Amino acid sequence: MSSPLVVHDCNIVELRQYTLHPGQRDVLIELFDREFVESQEAVGMAVMGQFRDLDDPDRFVWLRGFADMPSRLTGLSAFYGGPVWQAHRGVANATMIDSSNVLLLRPAWQGSGIEMVGRRRVAPGASATVAGLVDASIFYLHEPASNELLDVFRYTVSPVLSQAGAAVLGWYVTESAPNNFARLPVREAEQVLVGLAMFDELGAFDAFVRSGIWAREVQPRIAKCLARPTESHRLLPTARSAIHAQDRQRPPPGGAACSS
Hints:
By secondary structure, this protein is an alpha+beta fold. The protein is built from 7 helices and 8 strands. The protein has helices at 25-35, 38-41, 69-80, 83-94, 147-163, 202-211, 213-222, and strands at 12-20, 46-53, 59-66, 96-107, 133-140, 167-174, 192-199, 231-237. Strands 1-3-2-8-5-7-6-4 form an 8-stranded antiparallel β-barrel, surrounded by 5 helices. It starts with 11 loop residues before the first strand and ends in a 23-residue tail after the last strand.
């Protein structure tokens, strides 16, 4: 059974990558999906998606969203000072080697953020596998993304992905506001552009890679803007991720924006 609709669309997003002790990822995912989803959303944050990194068995990746920076401070303060985190933080922290690999992001242009309104997640306790593979690509830039570069991603890269059968989920750039919750560090010194696209399954993604269309049509357009090689992650949604391939239908706009 699905839980109620997720009604959060988010102007501020954290892309969080945790390095875990060997064999501990499923331990953290079980705890996270059981205890840390509704408890965070109850204080005004959106748990957008949780993922296993297909290429690193000890990496857990998730996305958390907020309406704005002030609500980020309010929500994080309430959750990390609240009873659920206090009760389970020992078990959660014991799974982790490092939790500081965090990018603080905002939509790259109006309407480019992940549409969360109408997404469903299964109820607590579910363990069924959900469909889809998310390609999360981090483009490291010499400087903040220019309008010219954003146009390349909007009008060239997005159509290339769509033609390959992917659902373009969102495009984000570095949020320039200082981290307002110092207890949780973020990578403030880097300028990035992050793209997330959903493929129905791994084979569709592999076919896209084999086609060579990225090297032909995209890489030459963006190479001069890149400070270092692009970081790419193949991500599998957890059972309770609200981002997955089985829920592509959305109701008309009008849901709340990261508010409970």
